[in-house]
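Quarterly update from the structural biology core.
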Amino acid sequence: MASSSSAKSNGQAKKADKKPAPSAAAATPAAEEGHAAQPHKLVLRTLRKSDYKAVRDIMDKVYSNMEGAWAQDEYNALIRKFPEGQICIEDNGLVVAAALAIIVQYSDFGDRHTYGKITGNGKFDTHNPDGDTLYGVDVFVDPEYRNLRLGRRLYDARKELCENLNLRAMVAGGRIPGFAKYADELTPAKYVEMVRNKELTDPILTFQLSNEFHVRKIIRGYLPYDSESKAYATLLEWINVYYDEDAEKLIGNVKSNVRIGIVQWQMRGTRSLEDLFQQIEFFVDTVSGYKADCVMFPEFFNAPLMALTNEDTPSVAIRAMAAFTEPIKTKMMELALSYNINIIAGSMPLYQDGKLHNVAYLCRRDGTVDEQYKLHVTPDEASYWGMRGGDKLKCFDTDFGKIGILVCYDVEFPELSRMLSDEGMKILFVPFWTDTKNAYQRVRLCAQARAIENECYVAITGSVGNLPRVENMDIQYSQSAVFSPSDFAFPHDAIVAEATPNTEMTLIADLDLDLLKDLNTSGAVRNLRDRRKDLYSVSWVVKKTERDEDLLAQGEDRLPVRPGRKNKMQHTAG
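Predicted structure, tokenized:
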């Protein structure tokens, strides 16, 4: 059968196969001469990344005259974004047919959309898990299996998926390759009418109509380079009669409006761990009282404990302080449960297997905990404390959407937030520690850039005050803030909320995630959708530790000497 969309992921048209629609008679692939045909064993399932080779082979056959198969990264991206929507049929363990789809909010595109627009020119950035319509991206069947009615099975599976996901409808743009033969004597509307009345047969439209689709509209320019269809296409729709527009869960929905709280933390001397716990609980209690979905603490908010270690050498003192990390994490988990709030527990030192790391913990209110290691350590952290960077980046699922956490210096590397954005991140949290205003400005300005280029919200918070007995963390500078993209729907200065500099306080901010969807489809500029993925990309590579070892080997000799304080780096961005 021919593809329902008849287009590649890069937006280029694929010519439909000119064979007629599947016949009523089933036939097996030709057996090798002298051997009996192997019995079929058909299984319907979702595609896996490991199926790429089989899918590639089919696409190369079906679309041999249109650049063949998609690249593996395109295939993987579609499975990553919407795994349950990528369906295949295998025969004796070999994939022989597949149907690919995304979910869209149909009102974002309307009836006059093109294939390129609704698929994001093959990037599939238009996939919206909260949308109302299943959109058919492609259908293809191995030519040897075209008479087994596999296309019908795939469409039946799509209908079942549409019903199970409670989506309003399934929509696809269908080429009408048979129209070229009649273009001189029939209008597109008349041609479609005659096919509907079975007076003519079209290789694609006839099959679609037999699968309970109706023609919603005829579009010009759906695939401008489709000469066989004279650039016309039918906008086909299958209505889910079981759709319940009031079927939203009464509780537990992913929120479109999120309330976050951030703590601009006062560094002060503490007498014990219990003393620190009281301070932490005060802020958790306060922010949760405003019905916030989460609260964030700064990087190294537990630094006052370093004074309790009675260690003179900073590298030894921070390792001693790392012994408090586990009980603090446990306490944060208890508070998240008891106060019904997600807690981003700033970041704390973790010393394991002879290696020192800086780790941010996400303590969810359902009792689960996750972690994000700081990936880029500053030269000061490496040579003064012997700290090392982590090697994994995570996009976290929460009950208020997908979030990312980048610890201070990490936000100054745009590749990280771009990869998080590709995973669906809508809010980026940045706990930081800085000692001077120019160090703070690096974090702030980079955070604002991340909000614009990734069409997300970014929340930052740090510490204020002084710690006279804690070397390398004795002075602090902070002005916590929440940033938005810069467009008409957002604050004129792209600042949602902002704290008073160097004053202990909390910020409470409401974030409308629906505004991010609108920005992506109709903003003055659309950074995510307009990226030239045909020219460049960002990807994760195999772990490398040479940089850590190099920084550690340089030792304290690399640091400038500041009067009054031996080997203390003057401007530190933690």
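DSSP finds 14 helices and 21 strands in the chain.
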